[in-house]
């Protein structure tokens, strides 16, 4: 929990699907070229038994810790991951891949479709959670990793790990599911629907072929992000951090910055995937997950009104009904869903203790 | 609380400001022509002492009760207002004006600016709550009404009545403030900021001169309404009414219908006014309101996360600190802020009992 953190790190890339070894998607699509951006921290042990997979959330990327040249600008989970930190890189070999369907180095809607030579755009196939997990698995094969000591993920990151527990029992020995859900509510879906409408109704969306026209649906993407940000922070957190006077300019700043770093097609693809995620709808899922006998730690935050404690409790209840004992902690934090990226008292300590078992 | 309701009603119009008797606005602007759309129900007593003013919310209109020809399509507060109902038209003379800055018959940004002969659009002056009240007062003068037996308003409607209590003590003898607030939170303002960004970034907004171009910023206005609707209903209410599967199409339906009946400029003007509303910032305000010795009933709903019980409690605390005794009831209702338009158990009964004192 101390130390100055990782130093310079670099993002690497691996090709995990080729025409000879395509990725066949759950929904029926096929991707003949999949490249994954990822970072690793720490050293793989000779026994290859010290791997921690970090799965990021909707708009995250592979750059979880350390820096890319400017020590003042560090990865999004830098205070969790590093020498002596909760995810201790003196002990663990940490792998953080950018997710499939994203736009930060891993294949997604803004990537070139090898069949046409132009960006996939609206032709990018529908993804399911299992497809994201399949890419993680291929990356670990590429790295020569079998069993995973632990997976740690927040929000959509936790959902990917949950999917993996049921899909390949035993491979993931431990999972830390932070502010995750196994099923979006109508309200969750409603906010995503508004964000998608903002994007697709932007005239620069051009039916999804904006890249070919040299434009981006920046107006819609900005509105989508401004809205999403409001749902990530609690009302009290907004009041404390930005206040009545500061909130509007803050949201504009957030929205403008997002447009520069994120792709509208990825936003559509990933929010639709989130809408559909409902693994416990299949009664076999929980049984399979329990059969792998993983250790599971669910963490939720009391002010999270997006995927709050009731969502984690739902995951716990489903897994426990299948015979697995799950640890669940609600952490007091005023910052809403965003708490998973911050450090409310007790949170990192829980993760550290769980990984050190 | 029984009866078949009012029959056919009509919307009337009154001119309450002219070049000879202009409306000088709180913020310094001047309107030389103000027309008000309003409806009345019941009969004014010979003593002119049975007036109930109904003040509507952000997107409401003068058509609160009865019907305009199709008995199946009734005013927005028809189950509250009518013969034998909580606002009993056998006893009271009910006046419901459309608010200044709106677009449903009362002067607002979509009205013609007499100085230019074209729609005001972005030139429509900034409004404050006192300006809306000033138009109410002029309408009542036009109708020959002095003291008002009671005002009843939900959300922005309640805020107009609160403003009036402090502005002209004694004129409004009773006020029912339903799901109102005296100060928006950062979160409240944030959602309005997103809605405004959606509207003003729509290319058809044309810097506010859309009417001159024969277009409307329909895409932005639709997104604004979809978003607002999510904040009007509780998460549980969305789940019950629309469910995970129905929410997206429901929001699209709501958004499309709104574009047909509401003006983007009015949305901007009125949400900015709401952002600024903060009457208790002036210590004299509460004292003035208390000096009028009005009877005040504040009603909030337990699932309202827009202007919930803490907002009503804030109003009550400020008025009571100034020496006024205020009645406040929290009503159990699963429908969030929208509850003020619905009929959760106990709500209409409270209003009826209060008005009959």
From TrEMBL, chains A, B:
Keywords: Acyltransferase, Amino-acid biosynthesis, Cytoplasm, Methionine biosynthesis, Transferase. Pfam families: Abhydrolase_1. Residues 51-343 form the AB hydrolase-1 domain. GO terms for molecular function: homoserine O-acetyltransferase activity. It comes from the Bacteria. Gene3D superfamilies: 1.10.1740.110, alpha/beta hydrolase. InterPro entries: AB_hydrolase_1 (IPR000073), AB_hydrolase_fold (IPR029058), HAT_MetX-like (IPR008220). It is found in: Cytoplasm. Its EC number is 2.3.1.46. Pathway: Amino-acid biosynthesis; L-methionine biosynthesis via de novo pathway; O-succinyl-L-homoserine from L-homoserine: step 1/1. The active site is at residues 155, 304, 337. Substrate binds at residues 225, 338. Transfers a succinyl group from succinyl-CoA to L-homoserine, forming succinyl-L-homoserine. Belongs to the AB hydrolase superfamily. MetX family. This is Homoserine O-succinyltransferase. It comes from Nocardioides imazamoxiresistens.
């Amino acid at each position: 929990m101390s130390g100055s953190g990782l130093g310079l790190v670099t993002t690497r890339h691996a090709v995990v699907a080729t025409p000879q070894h395509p990725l066949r998607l759950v929904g029926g699509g096929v991707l003949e070229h999949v490249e994954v951006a990822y970072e690793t921290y720490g050293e793989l042990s000779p026994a290859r038994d010290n791997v921690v997979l970090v799965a990021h959330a909707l708009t995250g990327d592979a750059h979880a810790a350390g820096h890319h040249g400017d020590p003042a600008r560090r990865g999004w989970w830098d205070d969790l991951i590093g020498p002596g930190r909760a995810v201790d890189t003196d002990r663990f070999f940490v792998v953080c891949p950018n997710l499939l369907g994203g736009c930060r180095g891993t294949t997604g809607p803004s990537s070139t479709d090898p069949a046409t030579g132009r960006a996939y755009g609206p032709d990018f196939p529908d993804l399911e959670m299992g497809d994201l997990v399949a890419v993680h698995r291929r990356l670990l094969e590429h790295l020569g990793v079998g069993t995973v000591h632990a997976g740690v993920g927040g929000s959509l990151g936790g959902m990917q790990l949950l999917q993996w527990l049921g899909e390949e029992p035993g491979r993931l020995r431990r999972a830390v599911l932070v502010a995750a859900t196994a099923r979006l509510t109508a309200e969750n879906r409603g906010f995503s629907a508004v964000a998608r409408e903002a994007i697709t109704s932007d005239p620069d969306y051009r039916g999804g072929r904006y890249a070919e026209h040299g434009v981006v649906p920046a107006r819609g993407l900005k509105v989508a992000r401004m809205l999403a940000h409001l749902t990530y922070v609690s009302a009290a957190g907004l009041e404390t951090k930005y206040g009545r006077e500061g909130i509007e300019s803050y949201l504009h700043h957030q929205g403008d910055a997002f447009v520069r770093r994120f792709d509208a097609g990825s936003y559509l693809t990933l929010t639709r995937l989130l809408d559909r995620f409902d693994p416990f709808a299949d009664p076999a899922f929980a049984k399979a997950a329990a059969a792998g006998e993983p250790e599971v730690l669910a963490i939720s935050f009391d002010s999270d009104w997006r995927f709050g404690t009731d969502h984690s409790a739902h995951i716990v209840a489903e897994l426990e009904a299948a015979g697995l004992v799950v640890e669940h902690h609600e952490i007091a934090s005023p910052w809403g869903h965003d708490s998973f990226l911050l450090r409310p008292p007790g949170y990192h300590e829980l993760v550290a203790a769980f990984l050190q078992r």
